[in-house]
Amino acid sequence: MNMLHSDAKTHLQDCFSDNIRTINLEVISEIQNDVDYYDTVSLVFLLYEVPDTALQRLIVFQRVHKDSNMNLLYDWALNAQARPTWRYEFLEALTICRLYHIIKKLGFDVASVKERYMPDNINVCIYINPMKKALYKFCENVIVNILVRLKKSLLTYDIDTSEHESCELICLELISQKFITLNKNNFVVENKQCHVEKLVRIVENIPGLKKVAEDLQIIANKINNDSNFSSPQIMSTPICSTTPNDDSKAKLKEDKYDESFCDIFQRLNELQKEDIPIMNLKSDTKNLTKDAYPIINTRRIGVCCIINQEEFHPSKDSIENNFRTPMLENRLGSTKDQQSLEQLMTSLNFKIKSCRNLNHREMFKFIREVINNDVRPDDSIFMLCILSHGVRGHVYAADSVKVKVEDIQKLLDSDDASNLHGKPKILILQACQVDEHRSMPHLVADGPKTNYFLRKSDFLIYWATAPEYEAYRDEQKGSIFIQILCYTIGKKAQQEHLKVKLYSARVLWYKIMQNLRSFSNIFRAQAVPILHCSVASKHIDYSLVPKINEAELTEQFVRGGGPGGSAVNKNANCVVLTHNPTGTVIKCHISRCQDDNRKLAREMLIAKLDEVLNGDNSVAAQKKRLQGEKLKKNEYKRKKMAKLKEEWKKREGLV
């Protein structure tokens, strides 16, 4: 049996030797007509020794291949025929590209050629540069959406590949610009170092290509460490071949959900509502005009800025500045959320400013431009909606860089955004808040004086989910949180006046929570949105506080009385301040320091004039009213809790 096997093998080798001699320039010229554009690009990538030459000819071929008879394979053979192995190189390249119909047409046995060159095993290399074979396998796994990500990632390294239609052209561009370096051809022994680390770091951050990145690094390490790896021989250690990425993962399974959002909303409306009147959720409705944020212009409520991060790519900043960058999938269905928000906010008389797929620098630039160019003095509300991936306290930009939500708040609070000071700012964040186990600083702000602008005030932040939880999204219909938010606000806006929409933010939030809780029970998915609110739900109006003019004041310094020893009778620390237009007199001897008493006397005079001139609308009256409402609310809670305890005792038979 061994003799029969040996004879058969010898016969195949003889046939192989005879057929290889039939490959000549004329045959190569005819083969070009049987190979399509993309296979031609792959063959040129594998065969041409000088990357710059291959790149320039392929760029021209890319533009004229439909109207020209440009024969790149013949040009290669014309220059390579001086080498004794050029026919074997060509045959190996055909095998790697799986052009078996060409191999069969040349008279070869396809099975024996595949056994000889093993096209699926990147560790098998005879005449073709092993790194080029590994790069070709990488190109096989790059589908259209991954190619777009790769181009965007390389752009962050100042490498523009936007005009290249195939991955092989991009690889040649990277070789030409020394972004990756290959060893010389198989017959040159010097300068055999291969460096693909930068490309590997990009590829490993693209979903679905982690195994390909590992294979590229393995081949590079073998070339650099094994002096015999790139010499003409067959390696004996095969590894599993990489298979093309299955694009079907990006498609939504038709049977994933069998209900539309309309059906879900209909079911939510049929569910039993919580039996709590709206009056119990609002602390006050009688003085709404004093405590709510006013709508200045009903024809234009404000500006709604929408940033939709749908397509992600690794970048130089995300790779080099973060010790572990996650692979971010594209957010299919996010366009539906953007359309829903635009439709809702347009109906509420907001000016819409939308943008998609911004890197971290473009995000801040876009927000800053909207604030400076589109926000007007008569705008009542500023709304910022960010649809993206996220981790705790951060959202991701399109270049996979984390952006702190706190930094966005600082931008909206900065002096550059002074036209937003005192106006409500609503942030809607559709992003996960998975905990990265990093300590988050706890910031405590001191209470400034009333005539200063309070940082981080007037903010209403809607998070799609709480920390350590994920946010869910239907890849065809949009995000659960955004769709329910738009539905709830749109329905509520039809029932209430524009003035109370922001004032009723917490009431809306309870409604959204109720709907999401019901939604979670339907789909068995944990959805735990949270609300950060620093808007003045009980707003104290300081606009009527009078301002004093120093020219209208008469100031005297007299000796005080009371405790303090003999110094009280010797020093004129007491300040007597008279407001000439109204005749109001203030005497202040709170401190032993005359300068402190002067400042305190002016504050006391302003408070006194505010009470005299504004009455029930004065700051003191408003604070007193709010304190009374707080006491009533606490008393209501105490009575309700006592009632619940009493009912529980009766049910348990403890009474």
UniProtKB/TrEMBL annotation:
This protein is called what?
Answer: Caspase-8
Give the record's GO biological process terms: proteolysis
Note the InterPro entries from the entry: Caspase-like_dom_sf (IPR029030), Dredd_2nd (IPR056260), Dredd_N (IPR056259), Mito_Transl_Release_Factor (IPR052405), Pep_chain_release_fac_I (IPR000352), Pep_chain_release_fac_I_sf (IPR045853), Pept_C14_caspase (IPR011600), Pept_C14_p10 (IPR002138)
A single Pfam family it belongs to is RF-1
Please state where this protein is localized: Mitochondrion
Q: Tell me, what is one Gene Ontology molecular-function annotation carried by this entry? A: translation release factor activity
Query: What cellular component terms from Gene Ontology apply here?
Result: mitochondrion
Q: What region holds the Caspase family p10 domain?
A: 456-498
Q: Which organism is it from?
A: Papilio xuthus (Asian swallowtail butterfly)
Which domain of life does the UniProt lineage start with? Eukaryota
Main localization is: mitochondrion
TM region positions: none
Similarity remark:
Belongs to the peptidase C14A family. Belongs to the prokaryotic/mitochondrial release factor family.
Record-annotated Caspase family p20 domain positions: 300-436
Identify the keywords attached in UniProt to this record, alphabetized. Answer: Mitochondrion, Transit peptide
